[in-house]
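Human:
Focus on the backbone:
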Amino acid sequence: MATLFAANWKMHHGPERAAAFAQAFKELTSPDPDRSIWFFPPATSIRTLANEYGDRPDVAVGAQDVHWEPSGAYTGALSIPLASGTRGRGHSGTGGAFRAPACVPRNR
């Protein structure tokens, strides 16, 4: 089993800085079948990172958080269908403890 490293970027690195980071990271590392690296950048940088790492089988890019509804009036939320259109690899870093209470459906 490969070792997993995961990094949630929170609200750091817009597309331009994400691209610069990815280029520097690729210069410093090479693919390793015994390692998986998952990046969870802000939604605005998912496509940029996915494009930068498209040739790296050991690197995956995903959404920091996703909403359970496929669409709707949820300001600022990212649905799974929207996140899937970013060329990420289907991963989500959902589960930040500080937001979890706000994300629980209230109609149980």
About this structure: The CA atoms of residues 14 and 45 lie 6 Å apart. The first helix runs from residue 15 to 28.
